[in-house]
UniProtKB/TrEMBL annotation:
It is an enzyme of class 3 (hydrolase). Keywords: 4Fe-4S, DNA damage, DNA repair, Glycosidase, Hydrolase, Iron, Iron-sulfur, Metal-binding. It comes from Maribacter spongiicola. Residues 35-186 form the HhH-GPD domain. This is Adenine DNA glycosylase. Belongs to the Nth/MutY family. PROSITE patterns: ENDONUCLEASE_III_1 (PS00764). Pfam families: HhH-GPD (PF00730), NUDIX_4 (PF14815).
Length: 349
């Protein structure tokens, strides 16, 4: 039996029941694919369900405001995906009359849609014979054929795409593409793959040569940058006992664009309370008569793809009002990075 035939047989027996799996509606497939980029199915599924409930159609998503989209996305990370999702929805509505493009080439014109996503949507929704290549597919092909070309190199990207096109089943492309991705997620998983009960156990090069744990090969990542974040949480209580604090919106093209956070004092190295006492006015220049308390003695290391954020929170009590203050009970309405969301949950205002 051919490679694609074994994938199809395996898939028909082992495919998971997922909320978007039996649909060929482009909006639902596109939404699921964007959410599942760099996100496990178990984590992404509740987000998918919330998005579908909140925005049942692409028109609903296009007409939402960005803060509403970012708030719903909160906790998934890589927030550029959410901004691109919103922008692409507007493109579908404004440029295509609310109807998704039906070809691979046209889908590529949508914001945030690359080769993989366009291939997935065009094949699953419109039966266009386009081969998908995601992390799962890279792993399956690299192990089965014993390929040590780095998957994140220019050469590797081209080679694996070409190979994926050669082994796909164009007549059953919808199930085949979903099948090979599912196979990589469940059977040929990154760690502890189920090699003993694999339909390819008699022909997999990596298994025969003892290379399963070494494939696929990836080039080393960019050097990690260490940054030191000091979040200053101003708290003012009025005569009625109501408490207020402040959030600022991040701007520019850096991490967490357009999300909200407490006033941030970034430093070149770790700061102590004496440093904060001297420097807090750099970000809270109008605060008077303050008491500063250390919230966490040891920095929380928040790891992003190329950055490690060594983060400490400092509580600053004041008996005077300050600019842009908001009631503390309102802060959960703002879209914030998960680092800030975790603090809000833990801290008792």
């Amino acid at each position: 039996m051919s490679f694609s035939g074994k994938i199809l047989d395996w898939y028909h027996i082992n495919k998971r029941s997922l909320p978007w799996r039996d649909s060929t509606e482009p909006y639902k497939i596109w939404l699921s694919e964007i959410i599942l980029q760099q996100t496990r199915v178990a984590q992404g599924t509740p987000y998918y369900l919330r998005f579908i409930e909140t925005f049942p159609t692409v028109d609903d998503l296009a007409n939402a405001n960005e803060e509403q989209v970012l708030k719903l996305w909160q906790g998934l990370g890589y927030y550029s995906r959410a901004r691109n999702l919103h922008a692409a929805a507007k493109m579908v509505v404004d440029d295509h009359g609310g109807k998704f493009p039906e070809s691979y080439q046209q889908l590529l014109t949508l914001k945030g849609v690359g080769d993989y996503t366009a291939s997935a949507i065009s094949s699953i929704c419109f039966n266009e014979p386009q081969a998908v290549v995601d992390g799962n597919v890279y792993r399956v092909l690299a192990r089965y054929y014993g390929i040590n070309t780095p998957i994140n190199s220019t050469e590797g990207i081209k080679y694996f795409k070409s190979l994926a096109e050669k082994v796909m089943d164009p007549d059953h492309i919808r199930d085949y593409n979903q099948g090979i991705m599912e196979f990589g997620a469940i059977q040929c998983s990154p760690k502890k793959p189920l090699c003993l009960h694999c339909p390819f156990s008699d022909s997999c090069v990596a298994l025969q040569k003892g290379l399963v744990d070494q494939l696929p090969v990836k080039l080393k990542k960019t050097k990690v940058r260490n940054r030191y974040f000091n979040y200053l949480i101003p708290i003012y209580k009025d005569t009625s006992g109501n408490q207020f604090t402040r959030l600022n919106q991040r701007i520019g093209k850096g991490i967490w664009q357009n999300l909200w956070e407490f006033p941030l004092l970034e430093s070149k190295n770790a700061l102590e309370i004496d440093d904060i006492t001297i420097r807090y006015k750099e970000v809270l220049d109008t605060l008077q008569s303050v008491e500063i308390l250390e919230y966490n003695e040891n920095a929380i290391v928040h790891k992003l793809s190329h950055q490690h954020l060594h983060t400490r929170f400092w509580i600053i009590y004041t008996d005077t009002k300050f600019e842009n203050q908001i009631p503390v009970e309102k802060i959960t309405e703002f879209p914030v990075p998960v680092l800030i969301a975790d603090f809000i949950k833990a801290f008792k205002f």
